[in-house]
Amino acid sequence: MANLDKDTVIAAFSDAYKKAHGKAPNIEAKSGWYSVDGGKNVRLAQLQEMGVSMSSQTTTKKEAKASSTSTKKKASGPAKSGFSVKEFWAEKLNAEVPGATLPR
Fold it and tell me: Which residue, among 40, 13, 38, has the nearest Cα to 24 in the 3D structure?
């Protein structure tokens, strides 16, 4: 287990939180536990993980937003996947018991 520097982890988390939510977090520390904006108390390692996940989510959101704008131009109508649960069960019931009624 690596030793975590409290100030570095809190600073990195604050930056990621600010990018994700647009405001600075209110972090309360009490005997090794940290509460963000009055939420659930977490340890420093969990705070670090939350900061990493927030920073990766903001990057993913930006990439998704850029790709969605390009895909919106290409897609002209609703896409069909070809798989239907209703059709699957209809075929299955027909194979097992011919003439059986379909479920609702």
Answer: 13
